[in-house]
Amino acid sequence: MIAIPLPFVVSILLSLFAFFLWVRPSSSAKLASAFAMLCALTTAIVGLRWSLDWAIFRTLQPILASLLPVCAWYCFRRAHQKMHLSWWHAVLPGIIALGALGYPILQTPLDALLTFLYIVYGVALLRSAPTIAGDVRLSDTEGFAHAERVAGYSLLFSALVDGALAISFMFYEGVHAPYILALSYAILLPMIVVIIAWVGLRTHSVDGEEITAISEPPPSIDTPEPQLTPAEAETIVQQFTQLLVEKQVFLDPDLTLNRLARKLLIPAKHISIAVNQIYARNLSKVINEYRIAYAQARLVESDDSITQIYLSSGFHSKSNFNREFSRITGQTPSQYRQEARNPLGKSTP
């Protein structure tokens, strides 16, 4: 039986997954597909580098590895804000590429630079996770935040792997390096690819809309959050509440923060901050409270099934509907309907 090294198996699976994502109509899914292909190529190069030990693969490996944290961060960042990558993000990968191509003339500390790069973008993902992503459906924002945190911790773990590789070469002549790399790439890259694919499939596609050419600074630079006075926050929440009551936009299952911002003509960050200040909870929970209130009325006033009601209330999944319904009312939808129709607990004849 032919034995296929683990990196090649992972590379084949990632390539198939990339094809699956590419045939999806969403542009966000295509971005996730491109990232999956980059991971597949990187994993294949790792396998070739340790199987053949050719100079070209030793050169390509750090170059491709330097692109992964930047691309992972960009996939998440686009869900927060549509933007083009600034040239700042090419500085460290460019230095690493020059060092790899110029070896041994240029003695560049590639391991240290790669470790620093993964730490910077890992921390950047962790810092942006609490912020609501403007183009992610509000019903998925909590899941998106968890995914962003996992991706951030994965990049930090990759930095730890790079440190372990440096120690292996420093003290053990790199004897353990193939095993460390194979296991890390086999575990981390597929996990990050799946996370980014999940994000891509749940990010509102803005095909045809103009993408603002924002010069995004390096992720390590702090950008202060806008501050709102109590009066400003109250004014924004009044407009927000009026829109929800009069237009019932909460019934849109694909509602995002950016869609709300366009309807209110108010910056997305200001809406999120104002809702947090006034309600003391995040925007997605407030929207779900309106959806549950609508569902409660439908449960009492109509004979529609619970499935019909949760779909018409703006929820994508029954599990999310049941969880939010229980959080807000302390009951299941069936219990609420039964008690609302029979307040004295009498059974119907």
TrEMBL record:
Keywords: DNA-binding, Membrane, Transcription, Transcription regulation, Transmembrane, Transmembrane helix. SUPFAM superfamilies: Homeodomain-like. Residues 234-339 form the HTH araC/xylS-type domain. Residues 326-349 are annotated as: Disordered. InterPro entries: Homeodomain-like_sf, HTH_AraC, Tscrpt_reg_AraC-type_HTH. It comes from the Bacteria. The keyword Transmembrane helix applies. Pfam families: HTH_18 (PF12833). The keyword Nucleus does not apply. PROSITE patterns: HTH_ARAC_FAMILY_2 (PS01124). SMART domains: HTH_ARAC (SM00342). GO terms for molecular function: DNA-binding transcription factor activity; sequence-specific DNA binding. Coiled coil: none annotated. The chain crosses the membrane at residues 6-24, 31-50, 56-75, 87-106, 112-129, 150-172, 178-201. Residues 326-337 have a biased composition (Polar residues). PANTHER family: ARAC-FAMILY TRANSCRIPTIONAL REGULATOR. This is Helix-turn-helix transcriptional regulator.
